[in-house]
Amino acid sequence: MISPRQELILRKVVEAYNATGEPVGSKTLAADPEVEFGPSTIRNELANLEEQGLLAHPHTSAGRVPTDAGQRYHVDNLLTVLPARTHGMDLQLVRREVDEAMRVTSETLSQVTNLLAIVSAPPLDTATIRRVEVLALQPQVLMVVIITSTGGVSKRVFTYDAPVDSGLAAWAAEYLNERLVGTGLGARTLRSKLQDPSLGATEGAFIDGLAPAFTELAATAEDTLYVDGTARLLGEHRFQELSQINELMTMLERRALLLGVLSAALSERDVLVRIGSENEAPALRSLALVAAGYGLPQRKLGTVSVIGPVRMDYGGAISSVREAAAALSRFVEGLYEP
Q1: Neighbours of 306 (CB within 10 A)
Q2: Residue 142 DSSP one-character state
Q3: What are the φ/ψ torsions at residue 52 (nearest 5 degrees)?
Q4: How many Å is the maximal CA-CA distance in the chain?
Q5: Contact at 8 Å (CB) between 284 and 251?
Q6: CA separation, residue 30 to residues 42, 53, 202, 208, 314 (Å)
């Protein structure tokens, strides 16, 4: 535990270093009107903070820089004093389908924070079927299109040995909408809905042939990530080694690995912040992650996050991630209304 005076000095060092990337000396701190004590007192407190592992002294004559632990102390204070929710980020999501909503969120968040922004879409198996289309591409080729409650679209093509009766295809579309709209995407539920002993032999066999478009839907679905600001992160922030860039790019390519990192935010009540060495993934150990979950009151469905240098504007990043998560929560609550 540090004193209020040490807390003030630590905050000033972190803010100045994150803004400039340069070590912060006692003269700079003494010139700050909020710091009301002299250089000798400041130097003494800087030394105390260094002994506690919150600051580091890169060179004998240079000022101090915050360690990961110092950044963590600063972030923990921010999480307690920043408003729990604000509404300044107007994403205009209400009328958009989910793909567009996620894309706009990632773009807006990256622009607002000047960082790499990543948004994970709700898993497909949390959605329900909104509409089914059975379309004749050729006389012997049909395409089944399934539109989900979250705006997701799945397509499956079926090829037959003989031309398909257009009346049968039209009937199938009407029947499938009547039976399946509003049904969740679990394979067992869909299979039971498709089993109808009252159907004639021709109709029953035709529906059985189309069944894999539905029963295999959730199993083959992949969680979707929306990423924006990669060029901004690489262009404006220096990496210590080229290997760090390679590791980060590899993580962005391996979506499953990145989803695993972001999933930690789903169990957090508030914003998750991981600074430098706190990150388990090697690709993120020279970076900082700020993430929050969004979704329904009883269940989080996805994450909103930014990745950037350890010396980022944590206050702005936390507020922006909170706002984006709140906006997406309002959006998906409307989609999932019974």
Answers
A1: 28
A2: E
A3: -85, 0
A4: 93
A5: yes
A6: 7, 22, 87, 78, 24
Q: Look at residues 237, 235, 124 and name the one whose alpha carbon lies nearest to residue 186.
A: 124
332 Cβ neighbours under 8 A, 6+ residues apart: 98, 122, 150, 294, 295, 296, 301
The secondary structure element, H or E, covering residue 137 is strand 129-138
Residue 116 tokens, joined: 């790499």
Please name the residues in contact with 110: beta carbons below 8 A apart, sequence gap of 6 or more. 116, 117, 228, 229, 232, 306
Of 17, 117, 120, the residue nearest 70 (C-alpha): 17
Burial of 129 (0-12, 13-18, 19+ CB in 10 A): buried
Asked whether the CA dihedral 273, 275, 277, 280 is positive or negative, the reply is positive
Structure token pair of residue 101: 């909503």
Q: Is 55 in contact with 23 (CB distance < 8 Å)?
A: no
Strand 116-120 and strand 272-275: the pairing is: unpaired
Q: What is the dihedral of CA 71, 72, 78, 79, to 10 degrees?
A: 160
Q: How far is CA 299 from the centre of its chain?
A: 15
Burial environment of residue 63 by CB neighbours within 10 A (0 to 12, 13 to 18, 19 or more): buried
47-51, 144-148, 216-220, 245-249: lowest mean pLDDT where? 216-220
Token pair of 283 as six digits: 């690709």
Q: Is the predicted pLDDT of residue 92 greater than 60, yes or no? A: no
Identity of the residue numbered 119: V
160 pLDDT higher than 70: yes
One-letter identity of residue 227:
V
Q: How far apart are CA 296 and CA 176, in angstroms?
A: 28
Q: Which amino acid is present at 60?
A: T
Q: Which DSSP letter does residue 13 get?
A: H
The whole-angstrom separation of Cα 303 and Cα 326 is 11
CA-nearest of 333, 314, 298, 295 to 119 is 295
pTM, to two decimals: 0.69
Quote the CA–CA distance of 203 and 136 in Å, as a whole number: 17
Q: Name residue 169's amino acid.
A: A
Distance CA 211, CA 145 (A): 12
